[in-house]
Every structure is written in C-alpha cells, then in structure tokens.
Amino acid sequence: MGVIQRIKKPTTRKGKKVLLSKEPKAIEGPKQCIFLQARNPSEQARNVLKDMYNLKKPDAAYLSRKNDFVPFEDASVVEKLCYKKEAALFGISSHSKKRPHNIILGRTFNYNILDMIELGADKFKAMSEFHNMKVLAGTKPCLLFNGPAWDLNQDLKRLKSLFTDFFYREKVETIRLQGLEHVLSFTSTQDGTIYVRSYRILLKKSGQRTPRIELEEIGPSIDFKLRRTKLASDDLYKEACKVPRELKPLPKKNISTDAFGTKMGRVHMGRQDINRLQTRKMKGLKKSAEEKKQMLLKKKMAKKEAKKTPPVN
Prior knowledge:
The chain is an alpha+beta fold. It has helices spanning 13-22, 43-56, 76-85, 149-152, 154-166, 234-240, 289-308; strands at 33-37, 60-66, 89-94, 102-109, 112-125, 142-146, 182-188, 193-204, 212-217, 221-230, 255-257, 263-265.
C-alpha cells in the first residue's frame, strides 16, 4: 500500500474534487461496502453474499468476477479494491474442503485492513425462498443482539461492532413509529453458533394508542459458525474510533448528573437585601386611613420623646 498512499497533486478541478472526496471528514455518511469472490466460491456462499448485498443496498457494490487469492494470507487485493471503490467494508465468499461455504467480513482504516472475521455458513435459506412482501431497499433496520456472549467474548464483541458498521446507515435524530419496518436479529449461543434472522415489522390494531407488534420473517436465514479472526491491536482500534475535536460536546459548567440519571444544576446568586426587595403592588396590601393616622401619631410621639431626653455628655 506504499504506492497508493503517496502524495498526489491535482492538475485539474475535477481531480482536486476527487481527492477532496477521499479525504477524511468530520461527519461521514453511510459506509460503502464491496462484495467479491475469492478462490473457488461455492453456490451457497455466493447466495449468502448476494443476500447480504441486497440488505446493504444502495451503499454497496457486488463484484461478480472471481479472484484467486486468500485474504488471510494476502490482503493486498482487498486493499486495492477498497481504495478504488472508496469502500470501508468488504465481504468475501470462498470455499474449500477444510473451510466449506466460507464468508469473510471485514473493514479497513486508512485503506489498510483493520478487522477481518471468518464465518462458516452452515445452514442457509435465501430471501427468495420466503414468498411474502419484502421491505424497501435502503431502509434503516433495527439491530437486535441476543445472548450474553456478545459482551463476554472478545471476538464476538468485535463481530458485534462489525455488524453494526455494516447496517448502521445514516444517523437518525428522531424516530417515527411507522418508519420502523425492518429488524435484523443476531443470536449467539454457547457453542459458537450465530443465528441471523430478518423480519418485517407489522403494526396491528390493539384498541389502544400503542399498536400491537408482529414479526414476519422475510429472509435471509443464516446459521454462522465463528472460525478465524484477524483483529486490530488495541492502539490501532482506539485510533480508528477517535472522535474529532469539533464533534466532542463541550462540558457545561455547574451541571451534573446523579446515579439515577437526574440532571442537577447549581445556580450562583448574589447577596440579597430583603428590605429593598420589590414586591407586587396590590390593593390588599395597601394601608387604610386609620393605619396611616396611627403611623403618623407614632412618628410624632417618637420625635417628642427624642426632644425630651437630654443629650448624653
């Protein structure tokens, strides 16, 4: 990858626009993905990759040409194709006697391999075998990860992050109930099997404001088996997940959150004089004529007593 990463100076306006589009951005859009064939892919492995491509569309490209390479031994072909297609994710299908119906999923950072995980498709039921209505292409799915192994196993934890990258799409600020149409379920078991299921959400009448939810399987249905992994080091992974400084939220002074999630605020006020405090004027607080006369008499009496008292030497 040394030749690819050399410094290039644009000679035309179009070339400058292309180079600027390849530079890192503070706010990135949906990650692009390429699906390609490695050495001797089987029919089942190709169909698995095609269905994953259908789920990822339109942010994906399917390359039908076969490539004679082994990704875990030489990943230069994948890096060159990712650079050419400006893709950060890739999926590869292959087949051998030792590893039948092989699927390799991975991602790149700075056009170099970051993570690469090998899965075996033991059982597969294509999307075309489910004769029902499908969801529209480009619909943002809900991702469900079932089982405690996703947080306990380091390989599964990285695979969970990889699946999230694959189907994340654009960032959504608000969610509309009618916009929830597609669910992708990933269930991990103790024996290392990963069940991938795809459902369409049906909103039924419930007699209340909240509708009754039903799930209809639309495919594909895949039973993956975790095989080999090639994960990035902790330092490289931390660098890849680094958030730009301009996107980090600025800390707000005198605002904190307790253990229950309640926001607490501290207000600083100056010293107040209650005697000079302005209150609301109303008729009920006005003094009557008799009260005013008594106040005047008290003031006169106080002045007379002050005159009678001799001065102290």
